[in-house]
Amino acid sequence: MAELLDDALLPTDRDGLEAQIADIDRRLQENLESIRALMAAEKPGEGVFLASEIHEAKQLSMLLRYQKDVRTVRLNALLQNGDI
Question: Which of the 8 DSSP states describes residue 47?
C-alpha cells in the first residue's frame, strides 16, 4: 500500500497544509485512474477477476479522503481563528 502522511505531524502553516492537500488530491486522482484501469481489465467471461486489487485501491482512496478532510478542517480552523 502507498505510504500515507502522518496525521500526528500536521503542518501548522497555511502553505504546508495547502501543499499536503494538493498532494493528496493528486494521489486521489491517480488512485481513481488505477481503479478504473483495474475494473476495465477484469474479464469475468475469461475468469479474470481483480476484486482484491480493486478493494485495496478503494480502501486507499478512503484513507486519502480522510487525510484530506483532516487537513482541510485544520486549515479552516486556523483561518477562522486568525492563527495564520
Answer: T
- 79 or 7, higher pLDDT: 79
Sequence-distant (≥ 6) Cβ neighbours of residue 61 within 8 angstroms: 28, 31, 32, 35
Whole-number Å distance between alpha carbons of 31 and 13: 27
Q: ∠ at Cα 24 (4, 70), nearest 5°?
A: 75
Q: Which residues pair with 48 in a beta bridge?
A: 43
Under 8 Å between Cβ of 67 and 24 = yes
Q: How far apart are CA 7 and CA 59, in angstroms?
A: 17
Tell me the pLDDT tens digit for each residue of 32-66. Answer: 999 999 999 999 999 999 999 999 999 999 999 99
